[in-house]
Amino acid sequence: MEATRIIAVRHGETAWNVDARIQGQTDIGLNDTGRWQAQRVGQALAAEPITAVYSSDLGRAHQTAQSIAETTGVPVVSDKGLRERGFGMFEGKTFDEIHATWPDHAHNWRKRIPEWEPPEGGESLLQLRERVTRTMHALAARHPGEQIVVVAHGGVLDTLYRVATGQEVNSPRTWQLPNGAINRLLWTSEGFTLVGWSDTQHLDHAPVDENTSF
Question: Is 84 a catalytic residue?
Fold first, then answer.
């Protein structure tokens, strides 16, 4: 089977990114900077041979993907499997607020305990990895020998990087996950391979990169 080329893009900036407020699966739209970043991503990918554009169904990702669709002529297909990690009761709060009120949970979060689930419906890192890996395998398998775009979230892209480089879910993060960055991978039935990461040449100022996925 021929490899599928994947262009993975993190959505543009939101007001909650700026505030370091946890978004999770709360549906937050792009701010002015995020809309500009989305336009720049679309322009950067306009000449790429793209067969399909897949996006998380959350607004911030779908808005970003729509900018790519407008320049490439390829419609956006939404997939809930590309959503950000669910953070349960912590969505809408900052990490400082969580640390002040629930220090035990904050400790588990910072230590990246694989089995820890944020209360009230949150996902563990292991659950996130299983969902993202399953979804990405299914999408990539539809397009052997072709190139697709996937627009998602920091937690999703962090998971992809770890899977492609053989790192555990609790390994310290040393790679960047900026809003609007372009990342490239290859997929075969044997798995994912990293090609290029965190390309922001199309952006003319430093994007936000939080210390964790929001």
Answer: yes
